[in-house]
Amino acid sequence: VKLTPKVGQTKSISDMLVGVFFEDINYAADGGLYAELIQNRDFEYKLDDKQGHDKDWNEKTAWRMDGSGQFHIDSINPIHPNNKHYARLQGEGIFRNIGYDGIALNKNERYDLSFFGRGTVSKAPKLKIRISTKDGKILDEKSVIVDSKNWKKYQLVLTSNETCKDAVLEFVFTDRQQLDLDLISLFPQHTFKGRKNGLRKDLADAIAALNPRFVRFPGGCLAHGDGIENIYHWSNTVGPLESRMPQRNMWGYHQTVGLGYYEYFQFCEDIGAYAVPVVAAGVPCQNSGAHGHPLGGQQCGVPMEDMDDYIQEVLNLIEWANGDKNSTWGKVRAAAGHPEPFHLKYIGVGNEDLISNVFEERFTMIYNAIRAKYPEIQVIGTAGPFFEGTDYVEGWKIADKLNVPIMDEHYYQTPGWFIHNQDFYDKYDRSKSQVYLGEYAAHIHGRASTLEVALAEAAYLTALERNADIVKMASYAPLLAKDGYTQWRPDLIYFSNTDVNLTPSYYVQQLFGCNNGTEYIPMEASYSNAAVDVQKRVAFSMVKDPKDQSLIVKLVNILPVAANIQLELDQFDLKADTAVVSQLTGKLDSKTAKPEERTETVEKLKHQKLPPYSLTIIRIPPATK
Ligand code: AHR
What is the ipTM of this complex? Predict the structure, then answer.
């Protein structure tokens, strides 16, 4: 293939093309990115949370009692009405939490232990609190006297004297007395950026290393829930932990919302990414009431008489994020530790909803209210579910009618689909709304994360760059999946309590995320092989990075043979003699392929052989003298 850049046809493209999609699916939040080590810390798990109504999933999940002691769940006079349940301990024994299949501790690391306690009789109960191996070896121990008859927060630090991947937290109580405990938390001090109530460092580091220009949250379907009662309400997820409102996760488990809107926004700020919160468009998933809702199976949305309140909730989010610290909601943000605004610019309304009258009516109301009060905020509408051939017609009719700035599209397709539809956005009308490809991934039979899917995504990303004059943003989905709790495959990052495994698709996202540009330079290709099928398997793009003026060439070869590339660079007045080459290659079914980096002379790169099944990124600094 001979590639000739058309410098005269250079166009400006989005500076935020590659971002991440975060949804609490596959235990991505609790037991995942959220660094809390105690499972069911607030005794708010419910039978109803769990798909299949597992009888062991209830307020006592992950807690055990040893010895003659007893515990039951009570709800009289709780810490906060949103956190109704607590544990009442009686007798003497060891009250133990097993974490998420064990608590992973590192030698000499410090852990913040906190809980709310109250003693209910005259003598103050004395507790020993310790971290131990599951065989009973004590890793650290402290004593606390619960000296209050009213709820009081107790805090101490435990330091593990060895590394243990499946420790337990124990409360040893010996006084034959009664004690109430709630919100029992064990947090590593070593979180991402050292934030309190923060994120697991290794996972957050892996996300940050993608150099995402934005983070979308909290879903996915989680944002609109599987019934009206399950819609995600952002305001339930901010403020002191004991006042947040935990909720059933529609993916069949529980969300503490300890990782709530404040933590999402803080993370975005910490990694220099735009926050892109998505709120429900007043309708749940596919507009249908599910999970025992009286409207189960029928189309439904937030009742019209409740829409004013719902719209106000969305407007409050913008005030919370951007308002002055003395405004009603700005005060809540400031009280959490962030007096300065978060500079919210984008808000998604709706997620892959069925485009019906019920949807349109509610979306329009929310959209108009945001436009009227906050015209500076860019609303991202939803194009609805993808049906091959219909190309989101109904969703786009609304976009056209309302002039929605950006439309969110989602599709999960085969590698072949991505390879053969690289012209998907070439056909889009440039005068209409911009596009946010909010969820995409290539799926093969068995849904494995292989180099095959990663290369199809890479080829498609070159096409997204070509179209990044209208495709403003794109995010692979889903992001995280915990080993043993994965409900959806493939995912970008798999993890356990101790390990993080990055997929070939992760490296593709990282290579594109770290090699973004804001100027697209089209390249004309002339092929020695006339077969279109072969031509589509060699994909390419060229961009210029405004930060250092580097010229970046991306080349994808999805053929089983090497591809000869002749890269015309003569029209650039190149200063550098060498370029940095990052290459991801391997067997098509490889799940462990990783990119390698090398330096190459520019001269040599003008005539090169792309290995079979490879993505090559060439970075030539800087483009002009
Ligand atoms: O990414 C997983 C799910 O796929 C999302 O929750 C939903 O929006 C889509 O259907």
Answer: 0.98
